[in-house]
Amino acid sequence: MRELGLPRYDADVLTAEKPLADYFESVVDALSPRSPEKVKAASNWVMGDVLRVLKETHRELPDAPLQPAALAQLLDLIAGGSISGKIAKDIFEELVTTGAMPADIVARRGLAQISDASTLAPLVDAILAANMESVNKYLAGRENIFGFFVGQVMKLTRGQANPDLATDLVKRALEIIRAWRMMTA
């Protein structure tokens, strides 16, 4: 576990029982490509979601309802920007009940993350135009409203918008509005 660069706590939990250590190592071996960020994510998912499901279903690791390769593929999809963490949680629950592979679920349910600025930008513009009172409050200094705009993008796309891209597009659109108002004032 040390060579994977995990915090001591994670290593202690993951090596407490041989079946858990074997399961985790199988997940890590199936990551493509393996990176420190993915290894830590694997640790978090195994210690959190996988152990939770085992407890809820009263199962032991050899009978885990989720194969290591499926969890690794889910982590690869997140790291590659194909799906968001929120969508991954939904997919995880389906993985546990169906045994399907994450990529198949994403394709079948049309859950791929929207990471195309040209698709999201018009949505951002429409949201800002429909919420000009909130835009005015934001530009007047109420910066805590910013999350509302990003939340609306996520809501409109049913959680499929890339959150980092949505945040960037909202920020840029608000700055353009601010600049335009300064120029025309």
Describe the structure.
It contains ten helices and no strands. Helix 2 packs across helix 4 and helix 3 packs across helix 4. With 185 residues, the protein is mostly helical. The chain folds into two domains: 108 residues, no CATH class; 68 residues, Arc Repressor Mutant, subunit A. Helices cover 71% and strands 0% of the residues.
Overview features:
185 residues; elongated; Arc Repressor Mutant, subunit A; single chain; 10 helices; mainly alpha; 2 domains
Quick overview of this protein structure:
The chain is an all-alpha fold. It has helices spanning 8-14, 18-30, 36-57, 68-79, 85-98, 102-109, 117-130, 132-139, 146-156, 163-184.
Quaternary structure of the protein:
single chain
Cα-atom radius of gyration = 21 Å
Low-confidence stretches: none
Estimated share of beta-strand residues: under 5%
For the biggest sheet, the summary is: none
Give the overall shape, derived from the CA principal axes. elongated
- Distance N to C terminus: 61 Å
Average pLDDT level:
91
Give the class from helix and strand content and strand pairing: mainly alpha
Count of individual helical segments: 10
